[in-house]
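Aggregate trends can hide what the representation actually does to any particular protein. In the encoding step, the backbone of a single protein was reduced to a row of integers, each denoting a local shape. The record that follows shows the chain in one-letter code together with its fold in token form.

***
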Amino acid sequence: MTDSSANANIAALAALLKETSEHHGSFEAVAPPHDWWDWYAAYMQARQSGSASDAAAEAANRYMAEVKHIVPAT
């Protein structure tokens, strides 16, 4: 990989991490204590698989509920 390709990949990953943090905020505000990286991983995997941001957030929420048993207060 060339330096410019690596830099582009780093920039894209940084943008995805920023987007993920912004979407995690609404989950974080109402969820019981949890490991943020679990939600991030589920969200990022969905985005990298082609899901829109809202669908990725739903997928991350579902993952947290079904796998980690973390359900936000309603």
